[in-house]
Amino acid sequence: MRKAISMLTAIIFMLLIAVLMSLAISLLGTTKAKVANRYLYEQAELLAKSGTEYAILAIQGHEINSTTGCLNQINLNYNDTFDINITLHYIGNGLPTANCNILDNSVAFDESNASVLVDTIVQLKDPNLNNGVPIRYVKRTLQKL
Predict the structure, then answer these.
(1) Can you tell me the distance from the alpha carbon of 81 to that of 135, in angstroms, rounded to the nearest whole number?
(2) What is the rounded distance in angstroms from the CA atom of residue 50 to the CA atom of residue 28?
(3) Closest CA to 91 of 56, 21, 143
(4) How many Cβ atoms are within 10 Å of 72's Cβ, its own excluded?
(5) At 134, phi and psi to the nearest 5?
(6) Does the chain have fewer CB atoms within 10 Å around its N or its C terminus?
(7) Residue-wise over 1-17: b if at least 16 C-beta within 10 A, else e?
(8) Can you tell me the distance from the alpha carbon of 37 to that of 127, in angstroms, rounded to the nearest whole number?
(9) Alpha carbon distance 85, 75 (integer Å)
(10) Spatial CA neighbour of 33 closest among 124, 131, 128
(11) pLDDT in tens, 17-76
């Protein structure tokens, strides 16, 4: 009788250890996927910030007039991993209407003249890099030129 109880206790103990080990392995796999997902999302966020700053520099280097028009779209690629699409919409007074994305061309205040709405969209090029989970980060800022 005593041996049977010992054997039963050993089997229950082994089952308990097996359940704990399977939970630990499951948690480890989930955590690894979450860390990879978070890393790619943070990278997309930083690329959106850098893309916005790049767009502001590109606008400042582009002369806006009736012959050259405006800089409306910038498309970038980062390491064949992320696509960065930047769309620019201008707000101001007396902006050239040809070849420009204009939100408002009748701003009455000098402080608000020559502003640009920058839409930056960063998305993972191949979702299979993140176990089929797509990553898309959108950043919209209003910048004074």
Answers:
(1) 11
(2) 33
(3) 143
(4) 14
(5) -75, 150
(6) N
(7) eeeeeeeeeeeeeeeee
(8) 11
(9) 5
(10) 131
(11) 999 999 998 888 788 888 888 999 999 999 999 999 999 999 988 887 777 788 899 999
